[in-house]
Amino acid sequence: MSKKILNLMAWHFHNFWGIKLNSGRIVGIVEESKESEVTDAEGLFGNLVTEFGWRVRRLVEEEDEMRNVAQVQAEAFHIPVVFFNNLFLEFFKAEVLAALLYKIRNSPPNRYACLVAEPTHSSDSDPLVHQRLVGVVDITVSTDKDVLDHLEGAEEYLYVSGIAVLNKFRRQKVATVLLKACDLLSLLWGFDYLALRAYEDDSAARKLYTNAGYRVVSGDPVWMTTWIGKKRRILMIKQSSLCVSLVK
Ligand SMILES: CC(C)(COP(=O)(O)OP(=O)(O)OC[C@H]1O[C@@H](n2cnc3c(N)ncnc32)[C@H](O)[C@@H]1OP(=O)(O)O)[C@@H](O)C(=O)NCCC(=O)NCCS
Predict the structure, then answer these.
(1) Which of 12, 106, 188, 224 falls between 20 and 30 A from 49, CA-CA?
(2) Residue whose CA is at the smallest distance from ligand 1 atom 14
(3) Which residues line ligand 1 (CB under 6 A)?
(4) Is pLDDT above 70 for 65?
């Protein structure tokens, strides 16, 4: 394979990992008290949120399901290239799947979750019925200091990343329901804050997050964007609903 193609692949993966991995790290070991909370909430994981014709649940750790998750995220974050586009997409999908497996194997169940959205009723005439998943989101307990600086009194928070919805199902509130499920998870796991990052110029994502109650608190430093030439990202945070009602 030529050097040019390899370079293109590296650039392509970097774009995805820029979103997925810069954002915070998977931390910690299961604490006993939190482990029992997870067990208590297990029943709810069957169906975290059901609304607008979609239901959100936790990923089932089976090969087909994990491949479907990788498919949804890879399609959503893949930047088409002129040559060898399908090849790049396949490589990208494999990378996304490998990252998902890594996170599942290395994270306690109350520190990382992949949530998936599917229709509450499937139509047999729908050609996508075999690919029932229409959207996904990752949620990870994180301790990134840059984020904690904006969260009063918090030592950890939930980082929301990799939210993706299949093209055909966009603008039908799938992402909205996924974000509601993240809110619920923050209550179940006992976290006061959720945080995420978006590109400053991505007005669609920003609107989605603002509607869901997130507010912008900071942006990437100028040297990162001007000198290195990366797109500027903003940090958005949201206080968990329980925390808000306790303050009121
Ligand atoms: C961003 C994304 C997850 C939104 O998913 P979705 O299921 O279509 O979002 P929803 O239907 O829940 O949208 C809720 C609101 O967000 C805003 N919104 C979402 N997509 C929008 C778009 N393309 N243009 C303008 N506003 C948009 C709207 O206010 C929308 O409400 P409305 O449809 O009543 O106007 C989806 O477009 C996607 O997968 N994009 C590619 C991956 C990506 O960019 N992820 C975000 C990384 S930060």
Answers:
(1) 106
(2) 208
(3) 76-77, 163-165, 170-176, 198, 204-205, 207-208, 211
(4) yes
